[in-house]
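Hi P.,

Sorry for the delay on this. The queue was packed all week, but I finally got your sequence through. Input first:
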Amino acid sequence: MIPYGLAIAGDYFRKTMLGSIDNSNPRDQAAVLTGAGARSYAAQANAWEALPFFAVAVILAHLTGGDSYQSAIASVLFVIARLFHVFFYIAGFAMLRSLSFMLSLGFSVWLFVVAASA
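Then the structure:
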């Protein structure tokens, strides 16, 4: 749901920064955004990029019969780290954004470890 929430945020920034939402050319319009608006679109792209790695990790942990408690903890922590990532990205806190990215990546790796340990 995070990428979809960021799509809504992107629409908000297109409307407030550019005066309207051009649904015929949304990518062209998004390309001229600056500041928080541009960062919201970058955060959305990053959220989509993180999703497949996390999804595969979750599916493997489940299919291999990995520890469900550890899987649940790693998954919840992943989502929390990604929510912080969104906030830090849009707010322009680059170092904290990178830290939250690395944490979320670590939680995905943890899921692969859970799968391998089963």
